[in-house]
Amino acid sequence: MSLGATAVATEANAKSVYESCGFPRAALAFDCVGGRSTTSVAKFLREGGTVVTYGAMSLQPVSIPASLLIFRDIRVRGFWWSGRAVQEMGKTGKAAIIDKVVKLVQEGKLKIRTERMPMSRYRHALAMCREGYRGTKILLVQDT
């Protein structure tokens, strides 16, 4: 079983990543930013592709040009972990999803890139987060 994307692009480098890979257009894109970012990712989808929006970090409405909806049949879906569909799973269903993800991480099939930093350096960790995209999550750990 192979997990993950063949190529990962940010809004800033999407065009160059797409052109350099020579892959066909993607069927699926995830957008946690909203606003104009949604348009940026939708442009690289194949006809009938889907954008899944699961966050709104820009605090702007999701923006998709009508031309992408009409001529390329791009679809936009929303996902909310606490939403109706997930709630219908109940606690057992949610636990099963979490167990599956944990197992994938433990087996090394799903990699989570993290950087550990002692709690005493929390100010530095916050400053790093403010710098923008880092490619890793910062985990604060208890000082030893």
TrEMBL record:
<keyword id="KW-0560">Oxidoreductase</keyword>
<dbReference type="InterPro" id="IPR013149">
    <property type="entry name" value="ADH-like_C"/>
</dbReference>
<dbReference type="Pfam" id="PF00107">
    <property type="entry name" value="ADH_zinc_N"/>
</dbReference>
<keyword id="KW-0521">NADP</keyword>
<dbReference type="GO" id="GO:0005739">
    <property type="term" value="C:mitochondrion"/>
</dbReference>
<dbReference type="InterPro" id="IPR051034">
    <property type="entry name" value="Mito_Enoyl-ACP_Reductase"/>
</dbReference>
<dbReference type="GO" id="GO:0016491">
    <property type="term" value="F:oxidoreductase activity"/>
</dbReference>
<feature type="domain" description="Alcohol dehydrogenase-like C-terminal">
    <location>
        <begin position="2"/>
        <end position="88"/>
    </location>
</feature>
<dbReference type="GO" id="GO:0006631">
    <property type="term" value="P:fatty acid metabolic process"/>
</dbReference>
<protein>
    <recommendedName>
        <fullName>Alcohol dehydrogenase-like C-terminal domain-containing protein</fullName>
    </recommendedName>
</protein>
<dbReference type="InterPro" id="IPR036291">
    <property type="entry name" value="NAD(P)-bd_dom_sf"/>
</dbReference>
